[in-house]
Amino acid sequence: MTDIIHLLPDAVANQIAAGEVVQRPASAVKELLENSIDAGADKIQLVVKDAGKALIQIIDNGCGMSVTDARMCFERHATSKVKKAEDLFAIRTMGFRGEAMASIAAISQVEMKTRRHEDEIGTCISIEGAQVTNQEPVATSPGTQISIKNLFFNTPARRNFLKSNPVEMRHILDEFQRVALAHPAVFFSLHHDGTEIFNLPKGNLKQRIVHLFGNNYNERLVPVEEETTIINLKGYIGKPAFAKKTRGEQFFFVNNRFIKDPYLNHAVSSAFEDLLPDDSYPLYVLFIEIDPSKIDVNVHPTKTEIKYLDEKSIYAIMKSAVKRSIGRYNISPTLDFDQETGFSNMITHKAVEDIVPPSINFNPDFNPFASDSSSTSGYASSPRNYEAKPSAKNWGSLYEITEQPIVEQTSIYADETVLETKQKQYMQLHNRYIVSQIKSGLMVIDQQMAHERILYERFLVHLDDRKGASQQSLFPQTITLNANDFELAKSLLDDIKSLGFDVREFGKNTLVVEGVPVDLGSSNINETQLFEQLIEGFKNSQQELKLSKRDSLARSLAKNGAIKAGTSLGQEEMNTLIDELFACKTPNFSVSGKPIIQTITLAELDKKFEK
């Protein structure tokens, strides 16, 4: 019987490795950017076409490579960063496995031009599917230029599983932002399909955050800094007032390497305890400097997971440092013990001579024991229409009770959750609930959740028929988003217009909102805030609930556009709200699946009164 175990050909082995290392275009972008950083570049340009499917090009001014190194870098396990096993415990470079370039070359068409600063001429290498097709000398600038074309051209199954261009581009932006944040002293630029997305000059960390996320982030940042014998911690956290409902602005870096660590994230969240609701996430960009011998980065192919020698101590340091910054920079609620708040509303700006002291008037002839036969008989004969008779001195007017008409209650259908609202009178409870009498007792409706359900079903119809009406704003509002949110908004623009928004692109990362959906009403609408909340709500629905794009948009706008608890409603408004609620397909449950309507039976009320 012949032997059946044999070595895989290099091309096949590289394709297998590529499945772990290069999962999508963003993975290749990450590996190439980190190689440029390791090469000592202080100027890196990224050019992307068709969200990386057609072209990914990196141009840097790093150290470059010799002819031999240029050819060797595409071999598996070929690296300049690790020479012996002990080096794995002293890693400070981004790359060290020696798999990225071989994996990329196995599934794409690669052209690389490179030249060392001391050389007069460089090298050009072309590779297709792990096979070198051309190598020749070339005149090029110092540094390295790598062009990756037609990613996954020879693995069609992987290419078919790629998402749409907007989705893949957002993943590229995520990887670009992480590398750019970790190295603020390096110039970065990003172009997509001929449009400049980022142009990041050299600067400090705070400047880099502002350049990446927008000028309005300048006032949101609070510095964090702590030096211990275990770790050195520095960076910024966001003020609680600017926390968002979605994750995405939380960044941990260990020795300048971006990592994902739920345990340390819990440390930061604990520091914000009692300052943020459970479903809000603060911004943070935190850098940990630690002895490489006390961590293990060789855990996962993407190198975003790290094992620590003393994880609990790092957790405690992280939590206390963030808490101290919150207190030091006065961003937590404080009490002023020097001010007596009980008298704060009694301060007046009138002159002393204009203040009239209060006086008390009374009737010295009043006898509380004197009987009034007319008033007594009036009370006994008609308790509902009782009216106190005023005394000669008008003392009785203090107890005057105005006669209120008795509202006749109308009947309801057999299903007591369906109301006949003709002449129906409702009562609003604490500006949050609508209460009505039904045959069996009381019915209580949550006004905010009811309005959310109405808007949600209405917006779903608009997304289907593309006929959402728009109410034009008196003054168009300009909205500047960060690059990631802008790409998301562009991909949703047609659907957003279907909902009733009149919005268009207006330059780099900027939109102009000229109208909002008529369904949201016209009072006190902040177009900028509404649109930003729409994008945030959409991302939250996509992350947490994995809903479709259509449902996520309708849900987000309904939640942000609905009347809020605390809004006073008139009788006609309550009638309309109830009518529209029971015209919905699912009137009993909110868009979050919670009950909108609760009934309290007479039996339950009797039990409360121990009858």
From TrEMBL:
<dbReference type="InterPro" id="IPR013507">
    <property type="entry name" value="DNA_mismatch_S5_2-like"/>
</dbReference>
<dbReference type="GO" id="GO:0016887">
    <property type="term" value="F:ATP hydrolysis activity"/>
</dbReference>
<dbReference type="InterPro" id="IPR038973">
    <property type="entry name" value="MutL/Mlh/Pms-like"/>
</dbReference>
<dbReference type="InterPro" id="IPR036890">
    <property type="entry name" value="HATPase_C_sf"/>
</dbReference>
<dbReference type="InterPro" id="IPR042120">
    <property type="entry name" value="MutL_C_dimsub"/>
</dbReference>
<comment type="function">
    <text>This protein is involved in the repair of mismatches in DNA. It is required for dam-dependent methyl-directed DNA mismatch repair. May act as a 'molecular matchmaker', a protein that promotes the formation of a stable complex between two or more DNA-binding proteins in an ATP-dependent manner without itself being part of a final effector complex.</text>
</comment>
<dbReference type="InterPro" id="IPR020568">
    <property type="entry name" value="Ribosomal_Su5_D2-typ_SF"/>
</dbReference>
<dbReference type="GO" id="GO:0005524">
    <property type="term" value="F:ATP binding"/>
</dbReference>
<dbReference type="InterPro" id="IPR014721">
    <property type="entry name" value="Ribsml_uS5_D2-typ_fold_subgr"/>
</dbReference>
<dbReference type="InterPro" id="IPR020667">
    <property type="entry name" value="DNA_mismatch_repair_MutL"/>
</dbReference>
<protein>
    <recommendedName>
        <fullName>DNA mismatch repair protein MutL</fullName>
    </recommendedName>
</protein>
<dbReference type="GO" id="GO:0030983">
    <property type="term" value="F:mismatched DNA binding"/>
</dbReference>
<feature type="domain" description="MutL C-terminal dimerisation">
    <location>
        <begin position="426"/>
        <end position="569"/>
    </location>
</feature>
<dbReference type="GO" id="GO:0032300">
    <property type="term" value="C:mismatch repair complex"/>
</dbReference>
<comment type="similarity">
    <text>Belongs to the DNA mismatch repair MutL/HexB family.</text>
</comment>
<keyword id="KW-0227">DNA damage</keyword>
<dbReference type="Pfam" id="PF08676">
    <property type="entry name" value="MutL_C"/>
</dbReference>
<dbReference type="GO" id="GO:0006298">
    <property type="term" value="P:mismatch repair"/>
</dbReference>
<feature type="domain" description="DNA mismatch repair protein S5">
    <location>
        <begin position="209"/>
        <end position="327"/>
    </location>
</feature>
<dbReference type="Pfam" id="PF01119">
    <property type="entry name" value="DNA_mis_repair"/>
</dbReference>
<dbReference type="GO" id="GO:0140664">
    <property type="term" value="F:ATP-dependent DNA damage sensor activity"/>
</dbReference>
<keyword id="KW-0234">DNA repair</keyword>
<dbReference type="InterPro" id="IPR014790">
    <property type="entry name" value="MutL_C"/>
</dbReference>
<dbReference type="Pfam" id="PF13589">
    <property type="entry name" value="HATPase_c_3"/>
</dbReference>
<dbReference type="InterPro" id="IPR042121">
    <property type="entry name" value="MutL_C_regsub"/>
</dbReference>
<dbReference type="InterPro" id="IPR037198">
    <property type="entry name" value="MutL_C_sf"/>
</dbReference>
<dbReference type="InterPro" id="IPR002099">
    <property type="entry name" value="MutL/Mlh/PMS"/>
</dbReference>
